[in-house]
Design goal:
282 residues, 69% helix, single chain, mainly alpha
Length: 282
């Protein structure tokens, strides 16, 4: 039972506002920092009001980059991050859909054995298998390439498991009706299973895009060429300067630009994302 008490409502709203302020304030400081020069940010107190250097900072990071930090222009790093995030997201969804469809709708030897092998890999984080994965990528000549950034991270046990669980909820009558109409397995997959999976695909797209966009360890291992640096790598290199002061206006501008694509994806797909997470009946 929910207690209809005014003080409970006031205190709960107060806690929510404090939590919101704790999340918003660092972002506000970041946005304010993008409008000031580097020396202005190094002098106390920290400015809390906007300045007039936003477009100069934007031009600096997008076009020139920070050469002292060994970071290429942000436009190039954002392109690399976009290629990596989309490659991982689309690849994971396609492979997981086909894998789950084969496990649920086809009968072949060791079907459940392969499913449980996929399921067991859920317990192995990327860091556990990253060295052998790096060895395979190096042997195949995938270092310093977009293929090396995306291909080793495409397989997803989580997405396969989630799609498999959803496919099990699709009524068998739909499969029987498709057979009576003479539909092939791939026709049934394309015309029936895929449309029903639309919200699940949208929810996974958001989650996997953010996962791919925020990757740091794997790109750090497979790329030594600045042409393939991602936005997360670029921010880290801007921060770790040994013989100079970090250029905070450029770092904050880069961080703000790096936040834009994930935020846009979440806002654009918000409705399908929420529906895909909470929907249980089709």
């Amino acid at each position: 039972m929910v207690e209809n008490n005014r003080w409970v409502k006031v205190s709960s709203h107060l806690i929510l506002l404090l939590g919101l302020a704790a999340v918003i304030f660092p972002i506000y400081i970041m946005v304010i920092a993008t409008t000031h020069t580097g020396p202005a940010l190094q002098r106390p107190p920290l400015p809390l009001l906007p300045g007039d250097q936003f477009f100069e900072n934007l031009k600096l990071v997008l076009g020139e980059g920070i050469s002292t930090a060994g970071a290429p222009p942000v436009a190039l790093m954002m392109f690399n991050s976009m290629v990596m995030a989309l490659g991982i997201t689309i690849g994971k969804i396609v492979i997981s859909l086909l894998s789950a469809y084969a496990i649920v709708y086809f009968r072949f030897p060791f079907r459940m054995f392969f499913f449980w092998m996929i399921f067991i890999t859920l317990m192995l984080p990327v860091e556990v298998r990253i060295l052998p994965t790096y060895g395979v990528a190096a042997d195949l000549g995938l270092l310093n390439s977009y293929t090396g950034l995306t291909l080793p991270l495409i397989a997803s046990a989580t997405a396969t498991f989630l799609f498999r669980q959803f496919f099990l909820t699709i009524p068998d009558e739909l499969l029987e009706a498709a057979r009576m109409d003479g539909a092939s397995p791939m026709r049934f997959f394309w015309d029936v299973v895929l449309p029903l999976s639309r919200t699940n695909i949208a929810a996974l797209f958001v989650i996997l895009f953010i996962y791919g966009w925020n990757q740091y360890l794997w790109p750090l291992l497979v790329t030594t060429d600045e042409r393939y640096y991602t936005i997360v790598m670029g921010i880290q290199r801007m921060l770790n300067v040994s013989d100079a002061v970090p250029v905070w206006n450029a770092i904050m501008t880069t961080a703000m630009l790096g936040m834009i694509p994930p935020v846009v994806v979440v806002l654009v797909m918000q409705r399908l994302f929420v529906k895909g997470l909470v929907e249980t009946e089709k």
